[in-house]
Amino acid sequence: MLVGIGSPALLLAVLGVFSMINRPLREQWTGRLAAGSMTMASLAFVAALVLYLTSSTDMFVLSYGSWLTSHEGGIAVEFLVDSLSLAFAALSAAIAGVVAAFSNRYLHREPGYNRYFVLFAMFVTGMILVSLAGTVGVLFTGWEMVGLSSALLVAFFHERSAPVTNAIRVFSIYRISDAAMLAAAVHLHHVAGSGSLALLFGSADPHVGTVLTGTDATLIATLLVVAVAGKSALLPFSGWLPRAMEGPTPSSAVYYGSLSIHAGCFLLLRAAPLLEQSMVARLLAGMIGLATALFSTVVTRVQSDVKSSLAYASLTQVGIIVVEIALGLHTLAFVHLTGHACFRLLQFLSAPNVLHDLHGLEAAVGERLASSSGYFESLIPDAARRRVYLFALERGFLDAILDRLAVEPFHRVARWCTRLDHFLCDFVVRAAPSILVDAGESGDD
Predict the structure, then answer these.
(1) How many helices (H) and strands (E) does the chain have?
(2) How far apart are CA 25 and CA 309, in angstroms?
(3) How many folded domains does the chain comprise?
(4) Which of 154-163, 250-259, 334-343: highest mean pLDDT?
(5) Residues 142 and 220 in one domain
(6) By three-state DSSP, how is residue 204 classified?
(7) Which of 210, 174, 240 is nearest to 396 (CA)?
(8) Same domain for 97 and 170?
(9) Global model pTM greater than 0.90
């Protein structure tokens, strides 16, 4: 366990320290360290999973003390270990190892090579913390590391303005997700007096049922669904997904094809016992998942670039996985999640080669290959097809809706606060000379 958790964390520390002193390692050493770290983590989690399954033990918690013990209880560093957490951690480490090997060649001699692997190590560390988190503090730390590294990798090519603008938009949506996660954590502390995720993810403690009443369980579960919707690009937050394709292809593969976009689904799987106590949260998750699947199915058919098309195709399956979780099909949902993550990883990494082969085939034929209409298109009447096409082309007008309902009001409040700050500063500056003069006269007297 410690080897699996510590390997990517150690990689992040080593690469981060050398970057801070402006002495980045050579590409050869960075690539070897990344590959070795991911291999050790994968083997450690696979071995831990095999031992867990053969020992037939129940869920247990590994505690490593507390952090920030200046107040009562502090922030406990605990990891919740069971077959689900170990399987997802092993999957994350294995996929990260494949992406690390691919990235080493893909980003060869790229100016931001070292910066990419620092952010990549931060992401893998965050994913493992999310997988094994036993307390809200550990979960929120991993959740933030995943979100921050994601936004920074979207802005990887920061010499252009578009990646930076899109990264800010992605990070803004993540703030909504993180706010919901933080609100759920605060409410859990309020009602239970503890940040233990055993209260949310199932426990043998007979007092759990009395701690989390129906109302409290519904509120926390609903907040978790909102957090998952923001992180996994479910409706109504799907507008940031195509913007995130500005990053390098390997980061798009590991974030929006395989791991990051499934982190929300994994969190819902972990919180399945809590969802079973709240029919409202289950209905909300099911409706959001179904609407996202239908929306993404339509939108992906009109995308003009392969990365956006694959991203919306991934979102279709993520929506279906959320529906499966809401219906209580937990084993099916995890198998679906695992297979889909591996399949989309392969598609994203091979997308440049597929495009190259397609262009070669078109050059040999002498014309562009015609695309045939599918069965789905034949079901739409001709009168409505144009409207559906416009809706899909504009990606459901989600950007405009979010701008009007969230971004613009926030900007107005920010501008009002700026004007208030200027007014108060000007008032203090004008009042300061008279105060000093009065003080001087008092001193003379």
Answers:
(1) 20, 2
(2) 36
(3) 2
(4) 334-343
(5) yes
(6) coil
(7) 240
(8) yes
(9) no
